[in-house]
Amino acid sequence: MKKIKRVILPNKGRVIVISDIHGELNLFIKLLHKVNFSSEHHLFINGDLCEKGGNSKGTVRYIMELTKRNPNVHVTEGNCDTVIEDLLEENPKLMNYIRSRKHSILKEWLDEVGFELKEDTAVQEVKEILTRHFPHEIQWLMELPTAIETDDYIFVHAGLADREDWRETDRIAAITMPAFLEKSHRSGKYVIVGHWPVVNYSSDIPSNNPVVREDKKIISIDGGNVIKSTGQLNAFIIHRTKNGDSFSQTYTDHHLTCEVVKGYISDPIMLGSISYPNYELIPLQPSEHFTLCKQVGTDELLYVKNEYILESEKGTYSTKTDLSCAQISVDIGDIISVVDSSCSGYDLIKKNGEEGWVPKDVLPVKQRDSVSVV
């Protein structure tokens, strides 16, 4: 890595870390308000500002302005942000990317200047238009550091190589490395990453909350915002005091919320989840609402909601999306997010970042038929 920024943190105060905003500007602003962000705090935005969400250009401009007004705001590059590099290098594959993506900062910029893509539009023409109209945004994105180092922490989008000098990590690996929490490093400091949704690490109950591994000195914070239907935008907060650092977290998402009207204790056999790439199933024992299935590739036995089981023309079975196979306990008065209320018998909810199924009478009647992700 060549682009490494050094930051000195005070030994007292709050450090707020957010990653993988993916163009969701409203969620980002809402999250800043929720954590009461002010100029006294240090804010680290750990890559993937743009792509996938609905307002990439607004997100980039907002964060650019934040960094201009506040020297305590620091930003690293993510793999999605390097779409600008593909533009400047005139990558011919970029045209298919722009045309096939529902949301991209490049398409948003083209729309802003009123340029309509044609079948024969070349990447060189797009580059000429965008570099002429958006030179400041492009330069700012290109100059983002790959990693930021402090005395106690390293902020990098995806991970570090397990080598004596972490600075020798290949730049592309640093922003694209999968499942860093399952790897190791030798930096001697906490490495804080996004990139890989933390729900992929879940076992018993799917959780979108940041994961701290003290033994590995790795903190993974990507809540799957935009990438997962149940995802959230996480804020990981470091509380620095003279007695040492402590951690807390919070999040925002797009799901409707409601208050639980009836308590429920989950069935202990209803645990586990399905996540990429292990979607293929072998149904074993059907019942009214859930079917006991064996997950191909892991041989895990999971109770899968019937509405999520798909049969192919070849007679094989799978789910089309990541899915909780767990039930979740709730108490009267709990505030939960409603993920899917379209299925029979049970609703899929999220409580404190964890996903699970509850009987329909747990939620108010007005919430029972409002949300579907199937």
Keywords:
374 residues, 22 strands, alpha+beta, 8 helices, 6-stranded mixed sheet
Task: Provide a quick synopsis of the model.
With 374 residues, the protein is of the alpha+beta class. It has eight helices and 22 strands.
Question: How do the strands and helices of this protein lay out in sequence?
Answer:
Blueprint: E1 4-6, E2 13-18, H1 25-34, E3 42-46, H2 56-69, E4 73-76, H3 83-88, H4 94-100, H5 105-112, H6 123-133, H7 135-142, E5 147-149, E6 153-156, H8 171-176, E7 190-193, E8 211-213, E9 218-220, E10 233-241, E11 244-252, E12 256-259, E13 273-274, E14 280-286, E15 290-295, E16 301-305, E17 310-311, E18 317-318, E19 323-324, E20 335-340, E21 346-351, E22 354-359
Parallel strand pairs: 1-5, 2-3, 3-4, 6-7, 7-9
Antiparallel strand pairs: 2-10, 5-6, 8-9, 10-11, 12-20, 13-19, 14-15, 14-18, 15-16, 17-18, 20-21, 21-22
Task: Please describe what this structure looks like.
There is one protein chain. The protein has helices at 25-34, 56-69, 83-88, 94-100, 105-112, 123-133, 135-142, 171-176, and strands at residues 4-6, 13-18, 42-46, 73-76, 147-149, 153-156, 190-193, 211-213, 218-220, 233-241, 244-252, 256-259, 273-274, 280-286, 290-295, 301-305, 310-311, 317-318, 323-324, 335-340, 346-351, 354-359. The two termini are 42 Å apart. A hairpin with a 3-residue loop joins strand 14 and strand 15 (290-295). The longest helix is centred in the N-terminal third of the chain and has 14 residues, at 56-69. The protein is built from eight helices and 22 strands. The chain is globular and about 60 Å long. It is an alpha+beta fold. It is 19% helix and 27% strand.
